[in-house]
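Lecture notes, unit on protein representations.

Consider one protein chain, 302 amino acids long.
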Amino acid sequence: MQLTILGCHSATPRANAHPTAQILDINGELMLIDCGEGTQVQLRKQKVKFSRLSHIFISHLHGDHYFGLIGLLSTFSLLSRTAELHIHAPKGLEEILKLQFKASHSYMSYPLIFHTLASSKSEMILDNEKLTVETIPLDHRIYTNGFLFKAKVGDRKLLIDKVLDLNIDKAYYKSIVKGKDVETKDGELINNKDITEDPKPALSYAFCSDTAFKPNIVPQITGVSLLYHESTFLEEQEHLCNKTKHSTAKQAGIIAQKAKVHKLILGHFSARYKDLSLFEKEAKVVFDNAENAETGKIFRCD
């Protein structure tokens, strides 16, 4: 699993501060999460192949999370894309984009498939052979979802020395790693667990931006490999959270600690702060394995 930060700042873009956008690669499935202004430029800088993108997930319809989408979709068409593209987003985005296409006489060269999100409860929105995706209902000024990405558990690990000692035919290897028992040439039934090891634990990623402090998401995200949680403010400006429905770095740390996640990534920083290292310091008071997002930064899990 690999997460690439394309932008991690709130409000308006600046020369070195780009709004929210991320690329997540799980088992070769490449997905875009949010699409702030300038996302396609950042994709170019990170050398992401546009043709590999299959799904786009938009958390909510504040501009710093989707204003880059119309340009990206238009570029796909200019590049003569033919593969279908799925967009998972709140109600209203399809209408917005189609109006922009109509006004500019733009026509897509590929099937654009919209999946409207409207439920206030968590729902499964993608389930294929590589991963599942669930919504994480958040608490913001408008309808907003986070997303929980879970890789499917891989094949069992073949203990090749034991298999060779038992003289098991190679033709059975594929079925063995899928968990099936096997019979030797002498007719002896071999239990699968005697010749394989459990696969690596499935990796997972929870994206939670934008939201007020919401501890009731903890059960859904418990134990995830990576958690991205917005931390727009520092604790000294916590009074702004009630009005704006955002979180502090300390609150993000509390969520990570309660959910026992493996790593916390902080982002969506307010432009009022010059020293972003203060966010890490504040979160680490309650959760030590916290790290700031940065444009171009890559987080990997094996």
